[in-house]
Amino acid sequence: xxxxxxxxxxxxxxxxxxxxxxxxxxxxxGCLQYDAATARLRRxxxxxxx
Length: 50
What we know:
Mean pLDDT: 78
Low-confidence stretches: none
Number of helices: 1
Shape: globular
Structural class: alpha+beta
Number of strands: 2
Strand order of the largest sheet: 1-2
Largest sheet: 2 strands, antiparallel
Radius of gyration: 12 Å
Strand content: 15-25%
Order of helices and strands: HEE
């Protein structure tokens, strides 16, 4: 498999998040972050995505 864009992780359905259009945008601009310790998404309080 080819490396995914940016972080070198392999492309895999086990290595992804399914997000709606709005949450995808918020994730892309850094307003949503993945917390690997808790396996949850969290919102940055100081960010307004829209």
